Amino acid sequence: MPTLTVMEASEAIRKIRSSVNKENSELTSSKAWQALEVHYAELRDVTMRNLFENDAQRFERFSIEFEDILFDYSKNRFTEYTRDLMVKLAKELNLQDKIAAMFDGQKVNWTENRAVLHTALRNRSDREVHVNGEDVMPLVHTELEHMREFTEQVRMGGWKGHTGERITDVVSIGIGGSDLGARMVCEALQPYQIAEMNFHFLSNVDGSQIAGILKKVKPETTLFVVVSKTFTTLETMTNARTARDWLLNYLNDEEAVAKHFVAVSTNESGVVEFGIAKENIFRFWNWVGGRYSLWSTVGLPIALAIGMDNFEELLDGAHAMDEHFRKSSLDQNIPFIMAVLGIWYVNFFMAPNHAVLPYDQNLDSIVEYLQQLDMESNGKAIKKNEDPVDHATGPVVWGRAGTNGQHAFYQLLHQGTAMIPCDFIAPIESSNPVGEHHHILLANFLAQSEALMKGRTREETRQILEMQELQQADIVKLLPHMTFNGNRPSNTILLKRVTPRSLGSLLAMYEHKVMVQGMIWDINSYDQWGVELGKTLAKTILRELKSTSTVFKHDSSTNGLMNYIKQSKE
Ligand code: G6Q
Fold first, then answer.
1. CA–CA–CA angle 395, 401, 403 (5° rounding)
2. What confidence tens digit (pLDDT) does each residue in 405-457 have?
3. Is 252 exposed, middle or buried (0-12, 13-18, 19+ CB in 10 A)?
4. Contact between 282 and 300 (Cβ < 8 Å)
């Protein structure tokens, strides 16, 4: 290792910095951004307690109602002036033009040269949407009709398996964007699910998952829905082949495949080669990104579970949010406000985490879903002009359903060294009202965001301890540990109930939030080269792992691990 003097080291660091950030980007050199920096320095030490004490209308001023959803963002380190500056920033960056470009079918996914039109899939108006000069709405409507026809047959028992029995179990096989959305919606809308059928989601290539599912189903009554945009994804194809072998092993007739397998894909020839009949293919298009695809035929398992009318309600809810997003002024625009709050914390408070905390067991999987939506979309560091960004981008998104999370990681939210902005999400009415359960759940939900915001001062803590009649020495000892600084921000999202419509709106709200952030950061929220890398890397290693020869082409760790695995198997 070369040894550098302190002078040489600092010169090297200066050079690295100047080569990365040649000059400030359009974003960080914009007038609004610079005003935000000054404003941040002023607001940094202001407490939300104070903001609430000085403004009795803060809740009204910083909350927005949309249909059955209330978005309260008053518990944020954010003022009307912050909001004004964010709106100015959006204007300086021509945000509205960028939003319009996406809705209009322009190729805003510039690395893959594709339009991004999940909004067309749920366009419930008669507005035409053009891609390369062609209106795509008739294609969308044809596939919706195909879904309706098929799902009604299966749900009513008209679609029979190879031996003439009705379908009782649906196994959806897909991964990532071809799994998470449908799985999450089916769980969230469980009360809407048809009683006569069971739904299973198979994504992991770990044999334990398929083995577990196949134990629960019968070949005669099972329908496999293979969901893969490319129809080449190793995990999905491996699971699909194993499922087909299992089916044929029992039913012993190639023709059974047509009755027990359907596919959702853009790759028609790949599906046909697999042995699935052409009429059993549900189509979508390359302008639908995986993580934005649940609104397309990728939602087939959802439609099978809750019926096509409810699936269309989901689309209606998302469309209503699209219209809110397109038409509301920015200061009343929920996705815009969510996006700029995120930017405020990531780029100014340097808070690189975001917790999603749903107080509804059926919404537990929304965390995983939003994690993919956000981290795969905005986990990028290169701008449109190919320069690296000169600011942080997408946060780490994580969380868990309340109240389980409270008994696990909330300690760090309250007293850890990092400030972690949170989204608290809850329905006012439970899907399963049982005794006092929902009141208790909601009480916890409200108590947490209040505590994070207010904290507990030293004086308040002392009073509590004194009431417990402790010795003075013990009080002094406990005081710093039991004091909470508070001033930890959160959004509260209340839904009257989790219905197909309100869920559709909620998901579209997050999609647009993520998209606005990507537009402001000037990154491509629609590609996923990191995911593609994973898909190719494993293929080479798989070949080597299967061969009997010693591996030597990689670094010593990878070689060593592979050879160790091979030896252990021997
Ligand atoms: C999503 C990603 C990724 C993708 C899966 C499955 O935006 O691209 O999660 O959905 O890798 O890909 P296939 O649908 O092609 O199997």
1. 120
2. 999 999 999 999 999 999 999 999 999 999 999 999 999 999 999 999 999 99
3. exposed
4. yes
DSSP annotation of 347 reads: I
Q: Name the token pair of 276.
A: 């699935």
State the Cα–Cα distance between residues 187 and 168, nearest whole angstrom. 18
The finding on whether 531 has its CB within 6 A of some atom of ligand 1 is yes
- Helices 366-378 and 180-188 pack at an angle, to 10 degrees, of 150
Ligand 1 close to Cβ of residue 393 (< 6 A): no
Pocket test for ligand 1, best of 204, 233, 526 (most atoms within 8 A of CB): 233
Ligand 1 pocket test: which of 114, 175, 232, 236 has the largest number of ligand atoms within 8 Å of its C-beta?
175
Give me the percent of the chain exceeding a pLDDT of 90.
Answer: 94
Q: What is the pLDDT of residues 559-568, one digit of tens each?
A: 999 999 999 9
**Which of 3-7, 95-99, 434-438 has the weakest average pLDDT?**
3-7
Q: Label each residue of 98-142 as H, E or C.
A: HHHHHHCCCCCECCCCECCCHHHHCCCCCCCCEECCEECHHHHHH
Closest CA to 198 of 301, 79, 58: 301
Ligand 1 binding pocket includes 173 (Cβ within 6 Å):
no
What residue's CA is closest to ligand 1, atom 10?
A: 177
Model confidence over 321-372: pLDDT tens digits? 999 999 999 999 999 999 999 999 999 999 999 999 999 999 999 999 999 9
> Burial level of 503, CB count in 10 A (0-12/13-18/19+)?
buried
Q: Decide if pLDDT at 569 tops 90.
A: no
Q: Is 235 a catalytic residue?
A: no
Q: Please work out whether the CB of residue 203 comes within 6 Å of at least one atom of ligand 1.
A: no
Tokens 């980007």 found at: 25
Mode of pairing for the β-strands spanning 134-135 and 130-131: antiparallel
Is 175 close to ligand 1, i.e. is its CB under 6 Å away?
yes
> Is the separation of the CB atoms in 347 and 393 below 8 Å?
no
Average pLDDT over residues 456-473: 95
- pLDDT tier at 537, thresholds 50, 70, 90: confident
- Residue 324 falls in the annotated catalytic set: no
535 is catalytic: yes
pTM: 0.95
Tally Cβ neighbours within 10 Å of residue 392: 16
Rounded-to-integer distance, Cα 418 and Cα 396, Å: 13
Interval 41-48 mean pLDDT: 97
